[in-house]
Design goal:
Layout (H helix, E strand, L loop, with lengths): L1 H24 L7 E14 L2 E13 L4 E9 L2 H14 L2 E2 L12 E5 L2 E7 L6 E2 L2 H10 L4 E7 L3 H13 L4 H8 L7
Helix pairs in contact: 3-4
Length: 186
């Protein structure tokens, strides 16, 4: 009986050691900055009365072309923000930034009735954009850009339209690959 207990204790120690080595060997998470885009109080009206909750929209980015947007709902504001932050981390996309400063070409993004126009700019221009588009562009790492929000000014839709615009950008390398040519042949 005592031998069985010793064997079980040894097995437990071995499994604990394995778990510890797994944790050490795992790569560290990328450092992402985040910012709340919007917090809204939403109400669901039912037969029993009104049910109030909070919806949060959160954006994350590394400042080097990685950007994500997420939304979350909960009964408390902090819980909604936490859910939105986790969703943003799962929805990361990589965009191409020319010379680490600006976009490769002018582009327009749409979401619902919101339209966002992004234009590349000369070095030193800065980020000329409204509040929601500015948050997305700064977190993505774009330094020189001119933006105009057209249509509705709903913050969530403007943020999604900005992400869609950044997704639809193409680089010279991407176009050359689609055509089956070299960059010099374009």
């Amino acid at each position: 009986m005592a031998e069985n207990i010793k064997n079980n204790e040894q097995k437990v120690e071995k499994t604990n050691r394995k778990e510890n080595t797994r944790r050490v060997n795992q790569p560290k998470e990328k450092l992402l900055n985040g910012q709340v885009v919007n917090i809204a109080r939403v109400t669901k009206v039912t037969k029993g009365g009104r049910h109030m909750r909070f919806a949060a929209t959160y954006a994350v980015g590394d400042g080097k072309g990685l950007i994500g947007l997420g939304t979350g709902k909960a009964n408390e504001v902090q819980d909604a923000i936490k859910k939105a932050e986790q969703a943003a981390g799962r929805n990361l996309i990589k965009i191409a930034i020319v010379d680490g400063r600006t976009l490769s070409h002018d582009v327009e993004g749409k979401c619902g009735r919101a339209r966002v126009l992004l234009k590349k700019a000369k070095p030193g221009t800065g980020v000329i954009a409204g509040g929601t588009a500015r948050i997305i562009l700064e977190l993505a790492g774009v330094k020189d850009v001119v933006s105009k929000s057209l249509g509705t000014n709903t913050k969530v839709n403007v943020a999604k339209a900005t992400i869609n615009a950044l997704k639809s950008m193409r680089t010279k390398e991407h176009i050359a690959e689609l055509r089956g040519k070299k960059v010099e042949e374009l």
